[in-house]
Amino acid sequence: MSNPVFSNSNVFGEPRRNAPGGTTTAPPQYGQYGQQGAQAADAATLQNMYEAPAATPVDTRRMTYTDVIMKTAGQFALLVVMAAVSWTLVDTVPMLWVGGMIVGLVLGLVNAFKKNPSPLLISLYSIAQGAFLGGISAFYEAQFDGIVLQAVLATFSVFGVALALFSSGKVRVTPKFTRFLLIGMLGYLVFSLLNMILVWTGVLEGWGMRGGTLGIVIGIVAVVLASMSLIMDFDSIQRGVEGGAPAKYAWSAAFGLMVTLIWLYLELLRLIAILRGSE
């Protein structure tokens, strides 16, 4: 899996392929009791179940696509509001967006590896990323008038196309698809780190290796990788819904989508800047 939010979760994960005896085991199916499991329950287990308090609607309700949509919309609204605030304060409080970048990175890692989702931490992540995106977007807008609107429209367009392709079944997440994405993302990560080091040390100037024709090609590759990651996110969410995951994991799904959408927006913003800078 490409997105650690989903790949580190048993709720959204792919079937495990190395089960004993060479068989493939599926992700856990919540709210279902297998025949073998019922037969294996001993008297003590049954007694504990009998004495346990009755499950509440919160405990028994399962995640739905509506849950994911509503949670994602809420997080997106938080991000947009904070981005607008950061945009207006970019000149008077320039460290706001830098702090948002650092806090967002930390909270992103914390949320990605938490087994149980925290609505508070996920909301704080969206707020921090909003502060970061507002500041960096204002920086790009000052150099290229209208570029933010272009990047936003492009992000929604790519999201819509990716969702349509996945929903239609024309693009499926297969082992080959996953391997290609993993190799591509690792290669892109190495390239980005190397380019950043060369620019920071003064070996290269401007965009570094991202300038010119090579930069445009790299930018297109990055957008393709982010689009493929979106499709894998959709597939993971589908696994969670069809597997009957508890409703609380809609927060994890929303967070995972936000991570990929933010990455896609930044790549499109940078690609459009490179294209317009070369005009």
UniProtKB/TrEMBL annotation:
Q: Where are the transmembrane segments?
A: 68-89, 95-113, 120-140, 146-168, 180-201, 207-228, 249-266
Pfam families linked to this entry: BaxI_1
Cite the residue spans of the region called Disordered. 1-33
The signal peptide annotation in the UniProt record is none
Q: Which InterPro entries match?
A: BaxI_1-like (IPR010539)
Q: Which UniProt keywords apply?
A: Membrane, Transmembrane, Transmembrane helix
Q: What is this protein called?
A: Bax inhibitor 1 like protein
Biased-composition ranges, Polar residues, are: 1-11
